[in-house]
Amino acid sequence: MEQTFIMIKPDGVQRGLVGEIIIRFEKKGFSLKGLKLMTVDRPFAEKHYEDLSSKPFFGSLIEYITSGPVVAMIWEGEGVVKTGRTIIGATNPAQSAPGTIRGDLAIVTGRNIIHGSDSVESAQKEIALWFPDGPINWQSSLHPWIYE
Ligand code: RTP
């Protein structure tokens, strides 16, 4: 079953939005397969965002991600990478639809509270980086009520 990496960024943690964000993935029917509160240092943040290293905002992005604890998660379910991005909303909260996490809870791109993998391939790479011991292996008893 497909898995994605979701991270609540330092502003999401500081603003007390951890529960609000988790509930949206839980209520949708996705399964939590990994969860930890952690701080990351600059080399780790730079590795996570290595594809963006040539962007003008790279320095401020690394400052932001290392500015406080983040919540790292693995979520599992059919189509969870794409649907997870839909639940999160557009990168710029001003363009995120109401009902999405960023559309409801954030205002500017540089404080957009959450990250979600943008492809199955990135998800695998990010899960390996953030969860070197891998996901927790369990299956919800609700599985037959969520999938036919
Ligand atoms: P994420 O990786 O965090 O889920 O975000 P994303 O795919 O929606 O956006 P991406 O283009 O990969 O950018 C990663 C993060 O960098 C910050 N950013 N700042 N100031 C800017 O123009 C700018 N553009 C991007 C955001 O925190 C964005 O989520």
From TrEMBL:
InterPro entries for this protein: NDK-like_dom, NDK-like_dom_sf, Nucleoside_diP_kinase, Nucleoside_diP_kinase_AS
Entry EC no(s): 2.7.4.6
One GO term of the biological process aspect: UTP biosynthetic process
Catalytic residues of the enzyme: H115
Domain Nucleoside diphosphate kinase-like: 1-138
Binding residue positions for ATP: K9, F57, R85, T91, R102, N112
Superkingdom of the source species: Eukaryota
Keywords (A to Z) from UniProt: ATP-binding, Kinase, Nucleotide-binding, Transferase
Keyword Calcium among record annotations: no
Reaction catalysed by this enzyme: a ribonucleoside 5'-diphosphate + ATP = a ribonucleoside 5'-triphosphate + ADP; a 2'-deoxyribonucleoside 5'-diphosphate + ATP = a 2'-deoxyribonucleoside 5'-triphosphate + ADP
Cofactors (names): Mg(2+)
Gene Ontology MF annotations: ATP binding; nucleoside diphosphate kinase activity
Coiled coil: none
Family of this protein: Belongs to the NDK family.
Listed PANTHER family: NUCLEOSIDE DIPHOSPHATE KINASE
Protein's recorded name: Nucleoside diphosphate kinase
Native source species: Citrus unshiu (Satsuma mandarin)
